[in-house]
Specification:
single chain, 103 residues, alpha+beta
């Protein structure tokens, strides 16, 4: 399946999340510390592998997996700087929909 036919791209577009399809994979904005993560096809599972800063990797099967990954990044870093008190504004609504706490 071509990367552009994937349901995750449809979910990103539907949920107003900025992304760019490149020859490396899908770059998604709004993740803490590095701001961008890269999604690459995982040939073994048919899903995606998210690659973040420091080569941090996580299996991604749907949009909620991305929301949880973003939330985990925020939890790990929001206390470090005043500007990081809240997640990226494009993700807040989706974090709240999953019932995750922003305190």
């Amino acid at each position: 399946m071509p990367i552009t036919d994937n349901h995750i791209l449809n979910q990103l577009t539907k949920n107003n999340i900025d992304y760019m399809v490149t020859k490396e994979g899908i770059k998604i904005n709004g993740f803490y510390k590095s701001d961008i993560i890269l999604l690459v096809l995982n040939e073994e599972t048919g899903g995606f592998l998210a690659i973040g800063r420091y080569d941090d990797k996580r299996e991604i099967n749907d949009f909620n997996d991305l929301v949880n990954y973003n939330y985990d990044w925020w939890l790990a870093s929001h206390w470090k700087f005043e500007d990081w008190k809240m997640p990226d504004s494009n993700w807040i609504e989706h974090i709240k929909k999953l019932g995750l706490r922003l305190e």
